Amino acid sequence: xxxxxxxxxxxxxxxxxxxxxxxxxxxxxxxxxxxxxxxxxxxxxxxxxxxxxxxxxxxxxxxxxxxxxxxxxxxxxxxxxxxxxxxxxxxxxxxxxxxxxxxxxxxxxxxxxxxxxxxxxxxxxxxxxxxxxxxxxxxxxxxxxxxxxxxxxxxxxxxxxxxxxxxxxxxxxxxxxxxxxxxxxxxxxxxxxxxxxxxxxxxxxxxxxxxxxxxxxxxxxxxxxxxxxxxxxxxxxxxxxxxxxxxxxxxxxxxxxxxxxxxxxxxxxxxxxxxxxxxxxxxxxxxxxxxxxxxxxxxxxxxxxxxxxxxxxxxxxxxxxxxxxxxxxxxxxxxxxxxxxxxxxxxxxxxxxxx
Amino acid sequence: xxxxxxxxxxxxxxxxxxxxxxxxxxxxxxxxxxxxxxxxxxxxxxxxxxxxxxxxxxxxxxxxxxxxxxxxxxxxxxxxxxxxxxxxxxxxxxxxxxxxxxxxxxxxxxxxxxxxxxxxxxxxxxxxxxxxxxxxxxxxxxxxxxxxxxxxxxxxxxxxxxxxxxxxxxxxxxxxxxxxxxxxxxxxxxxxxxxxxxxxxxxxxxxxxxxxxxxxxxxxxxxxxxxxxxxxxxxxxxxxxxxxxxxxxxxxxxxxxxxxxxxxxxxxxxxxxxxxxxxxxxxxxxxxxxxxxxxxxxxxxxxxxxxxxxxxxxxxxxxxxxxxxxxxxxxxxxxxxxxxxxxxxxxxxxxxxxx
Lengths: 355, 355
Prior knowledge:
2 copies of one chain form a homodimer. By secondary structure, chain A is an alpha+beta fold. Chain A is built from 10 helices and 11 strands. Chain A has a 7-stranded mixed β-sheet, with helices on both faces. The first copy, chain A, has a two-stranded antiparallel sheet with strand order 1-11. In chain A, strands 8-9 form a two-stranded antiparallel ribbon. In chain A, a hairpin with a 3-residue loop joins β2 and β3. The longest helix of chain A is centred in the first third of the chain and has 19 residues, at 93-111. The radius of gyration of chain A is 20 Å and the shape is globular. Chains A and B meet through β4, β7, α7 and α8 of A and β4, β7, α7 and α8 of B.
């Protein structure tokens, strides 16, 4: 979100306490609320503003509608040394994915590599949060999920049976920031389209098409349109593969059985995710790998640029600097977000109403 | 390749014998030549015409220039129950990747999951050939490689330090064809651009850009241009991640140290690849998984289409039917390919000159 003069900046710790307080007031056990709050504010620190505290109002709707199990038993229902299938028991997605990622890291620490899939979960925030957790253990992380609403059609189709199904991969570096890719397989998110409509702006051709396959640039017509996969049929293919690996493989929703979590806040989502963790020292001594990663990063960053380009960025590098900046200056929230959070705080009788 | 009245059709077995004969005449042990020939013709059967027998002339140049080790010791230099790093010893890429994939399948059969990386390899043909090998074992396959020439720049850059770095993922189905994604992370290959130049055709905007970032549609100017990543910065990020996982992680080339295998046929490529194999029954009973995969495939295929679209295809479905068709009708080769292979056959004094 671009900051204007109405944007207010909040220390990360204050927002994290706010989230934890709200979730506790909504009925989550304190420890669980704290984990969710940490994951949410990690997204805000990275600059994934659509996947952090911004979602708290929506999460609270789900919780109040009975759409979330507040006392879940998140546990592995199938397991061996290097894989596990985790039943999220309809818990907050952040809890399910924190459990799954920690399990993957433990298994990978012992065996070198692990893949953990989850079903019966919920929206878990930003993918990079989970793919990045293995980094501290000198591991590569990979995360995929089935999106919680369908705004895309198969290639050549018009029926909205596919979501933005994102993938995130994190690779440790040495002195350089880690490489962290975190992309939806659509050219943009439906949220950005709705934002443009609110602002009265048009959207670039390439973001959406209409049912005849023609570019749709008026976001007020978005209900007639389809999100475009990145790279056309290639992104469609990648999207389906992610749906299979994060959804069907785990017995989770993918396709017509995906519940639009914006339209229905009470129905069980059966949201599916996967996380892989792999030690780099299976292949190279850790220091050698990190040195070589640094070398490649610098080679790319320092390569010749187009005339109008100031800097070449590696995946995740902007977010790395944004974390530093926001830890220092605070997390910017636009007035509408502060207002909505304030209302929620009032309803829940929280001591901090962000006023 | 589109077939015209000059296209000739050859039985797969005849072309496989031809390749094996040529490679044996070039000095490969018979068993190794047979493996390479099988992998090459598998690519032709799938319709990946640029990655099958079409490459034989180029491979033969490399072999005659001393660019390939004809008596390699392909072996794991690091290994545990679920990962291995394989030294290809500068063998034909097909041998290295067949060894690596069979190793991954064996490990996954025992442990559920395996990831094998290779270095010191060479061009191995079509990625789908390797990602698909685990399918027969009710396993998911994933393959990535660093391309053997750099025709892409980092996002915002103009220096050609990245290749088409492809990814392939194969997922078993039940009665339906398996889902097999096989995509370069560029919008197109450099080969297709060169083909358009030969034919005097222009290329669509979106395939290449010039050094100011403007669309380049005249393929005769391709040396001034850069291949465009799929989905812009997203495909650039995916490309870098693939380069890290298939290249740097294995101590293989990625970035400026990639040798353009078209320009230099003698230098060691140090080509890097990875293959992952994973049993589906880690997560679901195999039959349940296959039934659900079939359901999703049918749901997508039978979903509503755009007016001008006859059929919605799943990733790899076209190739599935092409294999059947080519097994029946033969593999189509255009005159120039037949002529080049005939010349090679003459030089090597083969009994079959494809006349």
